[in-house]
Amino acid sequence: MVKYFAILIFSLAALYPSISEAKEPKGLSLTIAAGNNFAFPASFRVGWNEWEYGMLNGRSLGASKLFFFSESFYTNLGLGLIDSMVGVTAGVGAWIEMFWGVAFRVEISANSNYSGVMVEQGILGLSIDF
Amino acid sequence: MTKSSPLFIRNLFLTCLLIISGKVHASLDLGVGMSSTTSGRLVPALAGGLYTGGWAITGSANGVQSGYYYHSIYTLNYYRTWSSGNLLGGDVNSGVGGGVTYSMRGYEDDNADLKEAADLFLGPAFFVRWDFGDTVYLNTEMIWGLRDFIQHVALNAQDVIVFSLGVQLW
């Protein structure tokens, strides 16, 4: 249900990309999230401006840049270790502000490494802006 | 008037339309890469697309064949696109839309008939593309296959990822 909800939200958001209203992440943020099969923690990220570093998802460790296309939705692209081999991660996600800098976070990403391993990963968690 | 006049008038009309329509962003791209349908094996995939300023159509094909089996996979996607920003000096473009995947496979054992099957699934899709240099790009796209509900609840999915390195042909 979570994923259907996320897919529906992404699809609707994509119909109305509003770059002029896009969020511009500033400063430090922390993200902790569950992943596939609700493994926890599957993601632990330290963010600085539009970049995030750390355990991006259950199979990827590296750095990723967020590209917001509206107030709450973004795509991202990064480089890291996918299953311990160099690879690329790209995804689409939501960063929905709730209260006191805390945001609901959901993201689905495609991860590919140079040996040909390609895996989908989802995360569901919270981010905090400092 | 000659017989070719309608064609000439149509071309003239289209030319005028292009001139007055302002800046037109369009490219036809072709690349090679990998697909998650053969994940773990370096099976080359052919991937390409037609991109304009606001939408894109992309597709891919890959497959394997041996004396005992074959597996062919095709994808076709339509995206709403936008320019996302810049990464290490290269432009990043993104899009979200929908896609369809068609997969055919067959297996033939010794002294047995060929067994064949096919799958078709569709669902939402996205891509993130990094253009570096003038004409070279790295593209990752993914289709969420909407089939088994229980697996989606567990954040697992029947997805197809295509990763490609390509060039802008036009």
Plain-language structure description:
- Chain A is mainly beta and 130 residues long.
- Chain A has one domain (2-129).
- Chain A is 11% helix and 60% strand.
- An 8-stranded antiparallel barrel of chain A has the order 1-2-3-4-5-6-7-8.
- In chain A, strand 2 and strand 3 form a beta hairpin.
- Chain B is mainly β and 170 residues long.
- Chain B has one domain: Porin, CATH 2.40.160.20.
- In chain B, 12% of the residues lie in helices and 62% in strands.
- Chain B has helices spanning 5-20, 149-153, and strands at 26-35, 45-52, 55-65, 69-87, 90-107, 115-132, 136-145, 158-168.
- The interface between A and B is large, with 38 and 42 residues.
Low-confidence stretches of chain A: none
Largest sheet of chain A: 8 strands, antiparallel, barrel
Q: Mean of the pLDDT scores of chain A?
A: 87
* Topology, number of strands of chain B: 8
Helices and strands of chain B, in order, run as: HEEEEEEEHE
Structural class category of chain A: mainly beta
The total of helices of chain A stands at 1
Number of strands of chain A: 8
CATH topology of chain B: Porin
Q: What is the global morphology of chain A?
A: globular
CATH class of chain B: Mainly Beta
Strand content of chain A is over 45%
The number of distinct helices of chain B, counting runs of at least 4 residues, comes to 2
The secondary structure category of chain B is: mainly beta
Number of domains of chain A: 1
* Oligomeric state of this protein: heterodimer
- What is the H/E string of chain A? HEEEEEEEE
Uncertain runs of chain B: none
**Which range does the strand content of chain B fall in?**
over 45%
Q: In whole angstroms, how far apart are the ends of chain B? A: 35 Å
